[in-house]
Protein 1
Amino acid sequence: MDRRSFIAAALGVFAAPALAQLGSSPSRTRWKVRSSEGFDALAFLGPLAGGELYLPYYKADVDVFAPRLPAAVSADIGALWKDAEAAGFGLLGPSLSVIFSAGHDADLKTMIDAVASPDAILLPAYRSSPYWEEKDWGWFVSVAPRLRKIFETMLDAGFPAFLAERTATLDQRIAELPRSLAGFDVIQQQEKLTG
């Protein structure tokens, strides 16, 4: 094989994926990038619980916000996290995010209202989702009063203002992300990988 053929073949191998995307069908993945005070509050439960997975990244945030919470509520966040794992519910924040994901995550007030009437507000969407687990719902309902107390306390402690301070440039980044993500068709890649 001469040098020109080798270079052309090598370039063809590297260029093929890019050329394939040029002729591919339009992206079916529709990116919706938005902020969510509720999801941020759920995600912050891990650092507030003292989770080793989270503290290296969020210690400064915990150091600022945790002292605003009564000791009993702080202790209950840690206990609730452990209870969730022991009951097989999984990681508290991510698992709760699934239950609240049908649009009941806008802010802490919305989540407080939802957890106060979970059967009416959260159950219909969760039950019809592919993530429905009766055992998880039973555990969630059993701890709903504790969650409501935690959310109310976070609201009273000024979590919305704390979050706004910590994420001051978030809206600018949210505006940039859809353009950056437009070329990534996750649905197509998942179908390719899973058949």
Protein 2
Amino acid sequence: MQVVSTESGVASLEADAIVVGVYGSEALSGAAAEVDRASGGVITRLREASEISGKPLELTTLYAPAGIKATQIVVLGLGERAKLNAGVAYRAAGAASKSLSSKPRQRVAFYVGEGWSNDLLEAGICGSMSGCQGQDLYRAEKKRHPFAEIAWHSVNESTLAAGRILGESISLTRRLVNEPPSEMYPEAFAVVAARVAEECQLDSEIWDRDRLAAERCAALLAVARASARPPRMVILKYQGAAADRPWLALVGKGVTFDSGGLSLKPSDSMKTMKCDMAGAATVLGAIRAIARLKLPVNVIALCGLVENMIGGDAYKLGDVIKARNGRTIEILNTDAEGRVVLADVLDVAVERGAAKIVDLATLTGACVVALGTDVAGAMANEQGWCDEVLTAAKATGEPLWQLPMWPEYNEHIKSEVADIRNIGDGRWGGAIAGAKFLEEFVAGKPWTHLDIAGPAYFESNKPWQDAGGSGLFVRTLVELARRWATS
């Protein structure tokens, strides 16, 4: 998919479709006004008839409009200009792109960014790329048809390039999540990560089972024990600043399929468990974008990759495991496996000199109960660092909400036979209990945990994107790295 800039006027551009934007309570301007004049006032008449309101994500198609070379014009509602942000820009462009992707098209042009900041344009470009790509990777008859070319009107080359890089990186994350577990298992993910490392000239290490054993990663290995697919840990380093500058660690849970282990999930709960590696996929997409953007920052990405399966060698309820940092873990639910994997990965991040850490994991159904399917939960051991992550998420329009981490919650993970146990005290506060468990492995480093169990995977279609992997929080991590670079 090519993403280019065009300076052509909207009436003279030859394209399969052109998208123009209208705001809710404003007079027509820019490309929309030009289309209106060329077509004899058709948009004005539709607004007067209340067929076009300009509300966010509203789509109205004008076929073969008079005075326009393009085959069709899509009038895209942008809402009130004062409320326009990067989230609205991403979703609006995605909605237009998705609506046009039901059949193959060579060129689709976007004339919606008049007066937009570079941040808004980046978000819009990402949305236009994501909207036309679906989860139908293995369908003979595709539902989505990525455009051969997306053209954005009057976008400078640096902004266009940044939007393209972010869009490609989100697409990588989404594809990894959407692949079936027969294709995307720990070794396969590691192969993709190695390819990204080569493409972006990253330092890389891939730890196999023997190296993991030598590195005392007993917690990760315990979860992986029953699978025929051997585990991996991927470590990628991007040094965009001086070696003595601090390192930001991005840590991702990569359970490529989660059966629940001996605490077996019911079938309905297992259907989407190919998405349990979305944290690792998000981290890989983010470091790819950070490296391609050449941000002046040092970042290390770490992904713990396992399958959680059943078998004669499966780890069991009542087992006590000694994690890499020496803490002992009582296993009381084998379906609370992601935190057990991340225990060792977080310790490696600390050992590698991370100054601050963000981990991402589809960790708990409890977070979905608390916040719904569209919002991720943030939990942290230092408010200042959490605020930086929340600010980055707000800047990109990606939905994130902080949950408390008060000392009282420490009681939820205390064990009578080991240092800690891998589940909380009953049904209550499960997302926070998971975060409290992870906090035991960050050695007091500033750390924020993002429980992305809800928004990492859309179980039904959104107006701006098909169901499946969402790619959410790639842009948040990149924005965090940008802000880190200037701090």
Protein 3
Amino acid sequence: MALAVGGLGLAFSGGKSVRADDAAAPAPAVEAEKPELVGASACLACHQEQGEAFKSTHHGEYFEKRKGVDFEKSCETCHGPGSLHAGAAGDKANPGFATIRTFKNQRSEQVSAACFQCHKDAERSHWAGGPHARANVSCVSCHSVHNAKGEHGQLVKASIKETCFQCHSDVKGQMRRSAHMPVDEDKMSCTSCHSPHGTGSPKQLKAQSINQSCYQCHQDKRGPNLWEHLPVRENCLNCHNAHGSHHEKMLVAKRAFLCQRCHAGTRHPSTLYDATDITNGNNRIVGQTCQDCHSNIHGSNHPSGKFLYR
């Protein structure tokens, strides 16, 4: 028999006094069952296609050779223990079905954490906090473990450029212009200049600066020169579009309009060239370009080359 004493929060039960809130406390929750490892053989019962595809990839081939992970452990190394998922037998309403890691609805950092278990070099790069990570791009946005299309890097597309063009459609358009980087001809790739996993340089450049990146191929423009053209020394992109342009030499504007962005009304002549002047054979500009006279536009080492004539 239990007797409650009002206002005191006490109850008498079996000759002992207990607090009323203690008497009404719910029973402790039963700890949720934890998933356990079941091995790849159990996974292949439903995912035969993915398992066989994985075996034929470089990823599957080197998993055991380089990381010491045999095939039986391979699925759960990335996806986590699968006993509850396997026990759900395809029933998505079963809470155990969702205990497996699928990567489809996870944030990029969660996906990357699984990949970084093995790919320590990528983790030690500038990926964290980099532009790709901030844009919620994950490893599987570019790489496919089970269904790679690229010959190298297990890319989701057949080539590096196609993989990059999934997001960088503006660059794809620039590379379709008449003067462009030789990426479309497969003479170089996006990764010739950029590191997709991150760097400490702007635009994820492999080199320390834009100019240093350009000088990897254009050593003749490097200098130092006795007479330097300051916009050239400052940044190649002052005059050139890095990915493509409809003007010769990938220039950002047609000469002499390009030159007049800085040299407006200075020295000779004091009148700006407009479209009428350029097309009517004006004798102040031969061949429609300042470079007919100022030929060493990137810099000169001639003692008399102050104005880049020679």
Protein 4
Amino acid sequence: MVPAGASESWIGDAASETIELRVPGSLLQSTAVDMGLDPDRIGLAPECQLRDARIEHIAWALAAEARAEIPTGLIYRESLGVALAVHILARYRRTSREPSAGLTPLRMRRVVDYVEAHLRDDVSLERLARIAGVSPSHFRALFRRSMGIPVHEYVIQRRVERARALLTRGELSTGQVAFEAGFAHQSHMARCMRRVLGVTPAAIARSRARG
């Protein structure tokens, strides 16, 4: 058992058949919440030469499903995944006294890059959590620890900054700027700008004209 971020290796001394299972971090996080555990305070330790009959049973069931000419279906595979996550957390979890600090730099960079590339779209919490590899509820807490503000507020601030940059260029109408920055309409953009920057789109446009 090799937790994410750990580096472990082993060498077999005889021929054997191997099944490699990769459990998404988001599945472990959401399962921990369902089990009433604090996902910020649990983790897994590397385990070598581990023999666990239940894990073997689930692994072979998944392998049989992958080879089946007529698979049982996604709901069956998901049920096996949840059963595996529950067993791992129930038997092998390690509890820490301190919660995790936040998202790792790599995961945060992936989230930030996605937000920047999709400001014009309807950015969803579920999508950002999948990119970060954690459950939505856990993602909210980790993002706030990393950035100091809620994720929805961060997205609004980035949209405001995008709108200010576009208004300063003066190449688009106010309505086009609102659309390109991801706001529902001009009034929505104006309200967010007043709250974040303390100025209106018209004031930014006038400042550009004077400059």
